[in-house]
Amino acid sequence: MSLKDLWRAHSKAMRSKPVDDLVGPSLLDLKLAIAKMTLSSCHLCEKRCGTDRTAGRPGRCGVLEARIASHFLHHGEEAPLVPSYTIFFAGCNLECVFCQNCDISTDPRSGKHIPSDLMARRLENLSEVGRAGFKVTLVREWAEKARNVNWVGGEPTPNLAYVLEVLRETRTNLPQIWNSNMYMSEEAMRLLSGAIDVYLADLKYGNDECARRYSQVDDYFRIATRNHALAAKGADLLVRHLMLPGHLECCTYPVLDWLAENVPGAAVNIMDQYRPMNLAHEHPELMARVGPAEHQAALRRAQGLGLSLL
């Protein structure tokens, strides 16, 4: 089938009622087929570089095959999510000058590729289903059952086909978290719909100028907010906003205002732990830290808007 025909079948399947005794290809198989075909002219993110990644050429983000920098049972996420089995991909489609994970986001060849079937077995080993179905010796850090699987990075978007393939291979039913900068294409959002339970979503900037200056992306606010709105329609949404020093008026306030008006049911984490990292030294205004007064002003604004804060 052509990509156009696959998308037509996908739209029809998404409107259909679930079938428990399905024989033959599933909706997840269909999503995976579309994702793999998309890699031949990659437009998983909104940079839409069109690179044929199936021919051995990395995309504009530098990602070719999925490479995992680390994976472990993580206790440092928001309280409702821990312990979270967190899978950090190498590489990113954004180029944030202040990136807090710059060691892996700027090096898409770091880490190693873990075959999808092997990763599926790891997920099963972390769940009740896996423990019942496999006689395995768990390493110490896996002795505690994970509450979810957390796909992050870097950025998971260039690795969407890999994630869907892992989900197709696994027999466990752990909730899936998409931990993302949300600068993905609308096509990627359609593929994620129904496969992701929680979006742990960044909303970094309240305007396009700051996004272009610090992350080298265009049309950021429209794209990121569109994807946040789409995410809230089919899954739980937890929004992270990392405050930048001196960006209360231009970024933080517009972000909070948009959230209150468009996704009022989302949980929101206003983060003040910014540190000058990566190339922040090239921007003197980013060499400061977020002060208590700025953070308190943001919290007051959010509370006044009725947002649910974490």
Short description:
The chain has 310 residues and is α/β, with parallel strands linked by helices. The chain has one domain: TIM Barrel (Alpha-Beta Barrel). It contains 11 helices and 8 strands.
Walk me through this protein's architecture.
- The chain is of the alpha/beta class and 310 residues long.
- It has a single domain, classed as TIM Barrel (Alpha-Beta Barrel).
- It contains eleven helices and eight strands.
- It has helices spanning 3-14, 27-38, 102-105, 116-125, 128-133, 160-169, 186-192, 208-215, 220-234, 248-262, 292-305; strands at residues 68-74, 84-89, 148-152, 176-180, 198-202, 236-242, 267-271, 308-309.
- Strands 1-2-3-4-5-6-7-8 form an eight-stranded mixed sheet.
- Strand 7 (267-271), helix 11 and strand 8 (308-309) form a beta-alpha-beta unit.
- Helix 1 (3-14) runs antiparallel to helix 2.
- It is globular, with a radius of gyration of 19 Å.
- Residues 132-142 have low confidence and may be disordered.
- Tally of separate helices: 11
Label the structural class.
Answer: alpha/beta
Strand order of the largest sheet: 1-2-3-4-5-6-7-8
The CATH class turns out to be Alpha Beta
Q: Could you give me the name of the CATH homologous superfamily?
A: Aldolase class I
C-alpha Rg, in Å?
19 Å
Tell me which CATH architecture applies here: Alpha-Beta Barrel
Q: Averaged pLDDT, please?
A: 93
Overall geometry comes to globular
Run of helices and strands:
HHEEHHHEHEHEHHEHEHE
Do you know the CATH topology? Answer: TIM Barrel
Strand content: 5-15%
Total domain units: 1
Beta strand count = 8
Distance between the termini: 45 Å
Can you give the helix content as a percent range? 25-40%
The biggest sheet amounts to: 8 strands, mixed
The parts where pLDDT drops under 50 for at least 5 residues are: 132-142
